[in-house]
Design a protein that fits this description.
Number of strands: 15
Strand order of the largest sheet: 1-5-2-4-3-6
Radius of gyration: 20 Å
Largest sheet: 6 strands, mixed, barrel
Shape: elongated
Strand content: 35-45%
Oligomer: single chain
Helix content: under 10%
Number of helices: 3
Length: 256
Amino acid sequence: MAGMAKLVSALAILLSVSTYVNGFTASGFTRGHATFYGGSDASGTMGGACGYGDLYSAGYGTRTAALSTALFNDGGSCGQCYRIICDYATDSKWCIKGVSVTVTATNFCPPNYDLPSNNGGWCNPPLQHFDMAQPAWEKIGIYRGGIVPVLFQRVPCKKHGGVRFAINGRDYFELVLISNVGGAGSIKSAYIKGSKTGWMAMSRNWGANWQSNAYLNGQSLSFKVTTTDGETKLFTNIVPSSWNFGQTFSSLVQFS
């Protein structure tokens, strides 16, 4: 009986670490449009409404996109990955045939209500539009075209290494950027736990930044993160008690 009890206990611990069995699966294709920004080296795409900062050092590179209001979901879509194909059947002049590119959502393309949706107001609701980093866009479209019709689908994000946690803010206000998220890419909920506290729910502050209003200085920190497809992972003591604001901590745990 003692052996059985240990087995049940081990299974309970395993289930608490991950409550998801199947990895994120791709969606069907949807029609939209895509433009580009940021210059030929994508330097103009740094920063952005998701808060990832330097997209080169953060691992996102030049294959990124800003999403229109209809896709951005007030920051809830930050980190999602999309496979985009230029719709050659609709626009054979400016589309490159038979090529796709996968981008990560890192920014917001705001609406421009001074312009019509079919002539400059490309990101106006309810349009599903991608303003892509120029190097990514030029994988599927010819530069002079400027805007092209596309077919897009959400796909699993494949990231190098584990999820990262950047701790910013001040005493009684931890602002945590959660980045390099695989699988669904976007986060539904996050919890934080100090070595002297229980689990506390965090709230989305902006983009991929989540906040806590507890005093956690001098405590090791753990996180429990659930992605938008329902996969939950534990990051136990990922931040040591000697942490300081402004530091980033990389885990060995990743979403599928």
